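Hi support team,

I've been running sequence recovery on a batch of backbones for a student project. Most finish fine, but this one hangs at about 90% for roughly twenty minutes before it completes. I'm not sure whether the input is malformed or the queue is just slow. I've pasted the structure tokens below so you can try to reproduce it. Let me know if you need the job ID as well.

Thanks,
M.K.
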């Protein structure tokens, strides 16, 4: 292995430092599943405020309202991107207790980013 590297000691040292710096810069925090993109973080706040009293918005809990599907299960039924249109036009479900929501495009992108983070 070391034979493949240039014999110059400085170069080898530099290569090692670069490798260490690279590993440090890109190292994944221990609980990577908790690290959300900024969009997903905003989406998380939005759904916690607007949806979480009926829907489960995390990876483990039951929905407070039993008939409301936990958000982590939505992608099993359809790609969450397909909600984009319904969120813009006002999502209407077969269930009267689900209020109609109309989100602006920024909020939609954030919510979908958050929903995608639940798929992992
Ligand atoms: C007052 C309770 C309540 C709130 C608040 C609520 N929902 Fe729902 N939601 C429901 C219920 C009940 C259903 C199940 C409807 C059905 O099966 O017909 C549902 C279903 C859904 C579905 C699945 C629709 C489908 O046909 O697959 C989505 C997506 C959804 N809700 C998104 C949201 C979002 C996003 C928010 C917050 C902006 C939200 N809901 C807030 C009660 C709620």
């Amino acid at each position: 292995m070391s034979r493949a590297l240039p014999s110059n000691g400085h170069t080898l040292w530099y290569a090692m430092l670069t490798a260490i710096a690279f590993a440090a810069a890109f190292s994944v925090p221990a609980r990577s599943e908790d690290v959300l993109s900024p969009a997903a973080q905003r989406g998380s706040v939005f759904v916690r405020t607007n949806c979480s009293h009926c829907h489960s918005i995390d990876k483990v809990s039951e929905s407070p309202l039993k008939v409301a599907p936990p958000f982590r299960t939505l992608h099993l039924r359809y790609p969450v991107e397909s909600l984009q249109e319904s969120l813009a036009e006002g999502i209407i479900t077969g269930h009267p207790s689900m209020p109609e929501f109309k989100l602006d495009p920024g909020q939609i992108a954030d919510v979908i980013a958050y929903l995608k983070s639940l798929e992992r």
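--
Follow-up from support: It reproduced on our side and the slowdown came from queue contention, not your input. The two ends are 36 Å apart (CA to CA). No action needed from you.
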